[in-house]
Amino acid sequence: MRTCLLVIVLSVALFLVSPLGATAQRYSAWSTPTVFDEVNTSSALEFASAISKDDLSFYFQRGDVTKSGEDIWVVHRDRKDAPWGTPEKLPDTVNSAYNDRGAFVSSDGHWLYFASDRPGGRGGFDLMVSYRQHTHDDSAWEPARNLDDLGSPINTKGFDSGPALFDDEESGLTYMYFVSNPAGNQNNGVDIYASVRNPDGSFESPIKVQELSDPLWNEGRPYLRRDGLEIFFQSNRPGSVGQSQDLWTSTRAATHDPWSTPIPVDELNTAAGDVTPALSWDGLTLYFARRLSAATDAQILFSRREKVHGSRGN
Q1: What is the pLDDT of residues 4-57, one digit of tens each?
Q2: H/E/C letters for each residue in 167-196?
């Protein structure tokens, strides 16, 4: 009887502090997306990758995996209210003659994580990392290394991509979320995984994030809010619009809690493919890519939301 009562009390408590409810009260709806003209300057496919902590550097990938290959680019601005400059391709210490994609810069600005299918890896795409001493110099990235070479049991014989880091202030740990299909390619069976970073920069064995992974469908590019209580990713699971992948989101009340059941970001999804979300540090701007079909150009867009007046939290 006592056990049953405890279950009921906990269920009520979880309902009252529902992560989805808290997030809904904290932020307004997303605005109508705007095309990110400053980065959509070529006829190649362009996909969002990451935004730096200071909001002054935006990383994206340009190219086609089936044609000329994918490379990682960056565009800068001097202030948040200043116009963006001209996109620049990252140096050959990062980019290769193969496909390089899904970049994420660490909060301290020293580390760039990304995925590549260059020779020497374990599988089709492997997770890589590059370091730079000067955090505002994108020409100073050192030669990238496979995470396995740093003692990380991360990469598989299959597909590993989409790294995104989250610094958990509650535990003092840094987590890397990414997508993986240990047994195959990126076209099916891709799920979301998480791994803890060790003090030496290596990562522990990853664990599948069951609440976010649908075994029958494909997940892609997870990206967390800075407090770790909200996550965005792409998926083609039931509930998506049309036949393509859509943007999905999930929340949790604390970083040690399980994620809520994912829901589609309805105000942003279309019948086109809406993919590769990247959230600003303040959680108010979401960058993503939209592709009308496999034969058309992919463009990067952004949408904004506001904090609701009087909401609790950061």
Answers
A1: 332 333 233 333 334 444 444 589 999 999 999 999 988 889 999 999 999 999
A2: ECCCCCCEEEEEEEECCCCCCCCCEEEEEE
Q: What CA–CA distance (Å, rounded) separates 135 from 174?
A: 19
Supply φ then ψ for residue 20, to 5 degrees: -65, -40
φ/ψ of residue 212, rounded to 5 = -105, -10
Q: What are the beta bridge partners of residue 198?
A: none
CA distance 312 to 299: 35
Rounded CA gap, 239 and 27, in Å? 23
Alpha-carbon distance of 116 to 123, in angstroms, equals: 10
What ranges do the domains of the chain cover? 16-304
Strand-strand pairing, 191-196 and 174-181: antiparallel
How remote is the C-alpha of 256 from its chain's centroid?
A: 20
Phi, psi of 161 (to 5 degrees): -160, 180
CATH of domain 16-304: 2.120.10.30
Q: What is the pLDDT of residue 310?
A: 62
In degrees and rounded to multiples of 5, residue 193 shows phi and psi of: -125, 165
Beta bridge partners of 264: 248
290 DSSP β-pair partners: 274, 299
